[in-house]
Amino acid sequence: MSNEYFKGISKIQFEGAESDNPLAYRFYDETRVVGNKTMKEWLKFAVAYWHSFCANGGDPFGEPTQSFAWNTKSDAVDRAKDKADAAFEFISKLNVPYYCFHDVDVVDYTNDINENDRRLQALTAHLKQHQDASGIKLLWGTANLFSNKRYMNGAATNPNFHVLAHGGAQVKAALDATVALGGENYVFWGGREGYMSLLNTNMKREKAHLAKFLHLAKDYARSIGFKGNFFIEPKPCEPSKHQYDYDCETVIGFLREHDLLNDFKINIEVNHATLAGHTFQHELQVAADAGVLGSMDANRGDYQNGWDTDQFPNNINELVEAMLVLVEAGGLAGGGINFDAKIRRNSTDPKDIFYAHIGGIDTFAKALILADKILANSEYKALRTKRYSSFDGGAGADFENGKLSLTDLRQYAIDNGEPDMISGQQEYLENLINRYVL
């Protein structure tokens, strides 16, 4: 590497809870065994290419505030190679095992498909050199099918077949790059796969087209040797009024209806969960119960804003409850935890991106430690099991096993009179979590 973009910063090391070093991990020790896995295996942290190396602090009301030293050359491929050099320097110094990308974040695209393929192939070779030299792996790749103006009405759900075909060309190239780089997964986020108005929308036809598109992508990827998972990332709205991947339940129903559950799992973003009116842990539990908990986008929203603020995660209570779901589910199915988060517009020092990632990584690591202790040492699981104990034997077990009729239920209610009031002990359980957190 000819340039050092993050000067004066060494590889981030684990120093323990007593450390006051802001450029060190206090809780994330990748070799520490929690339950039956190391932290590195549980969490599989990844740096998101787009926010960390492309987001420049600009917003609809102001110009960019970030100035990137790797963004100076006029040639798109040369400029992208410098960005890749900076990315791998950062990821290596952060000391995490993975990264992930959209195609257009790796290198700027034009409206010429052949030129785009040439550019992405050149960068794929460059990224492969970095991966081989560093040991850093690609967690997942994806294609950006929402930023270009041609996708204003969606890509796979666009009413114009010509636009859908362009989306197919872009996904093919992104899949080729993902496979060439040994990517472990591939993600679809339907950023505009939805509608703005039902007045001009044939919703049934659009969803059928989306399913056909996903089948084509899946079949092509398998034909070129991709053995990983495909992920759908739910989001309810923004930029569309309504998106077809609204939440986990919606996605699971769609995958089941269109025979995609064998190949697809779910990538859950915290801020998308809250925009859908759910908690992060709710969406994790829905996916875990269906056996499709694949991966996570780590971030948080702002309680005062009803949009996707993509802030770095720092809410320990939220993440402890999330890790309780993760640990009980046995971990993620193929995916990891990528930081789909960006530093704030007024965070302009090169160290700020390190502070942001270190804080998020340490919060997840501490939450994992606490969740494991709660499950192993407290009465958390026992209380929940006890709450459903009436279904573990007798008539309750007969009901679960399909042995009772509605008439049988009526007779049981008559024979046993009014049921006792049994506390759900919510406050006690909330205090139990806080005993470990505090």
Automatic annotation (TrEMBL):
Molecular function in Gene Ontology: xylose isomerase activity
Keywords: Carbohydrate metabolism, Cytoplasm, Isomerase, Magnesium, Metal-binding, Xylose metabolism
Keyword Zinc set for record: no
Cofactor binding note of this UniProt entry: Binds 2 magnesium ions per subunit.
Co-factor requirement: Mg(2+)
Gene3D superfamilies given in the database record: Divalent-metal-dependent TIM barrel enzymes
Subunit: Homotetramer.
Name this protein carries in UniProt: Xylose isomerase
Source organism of the structure: Polluticaenibacter yanchengensis
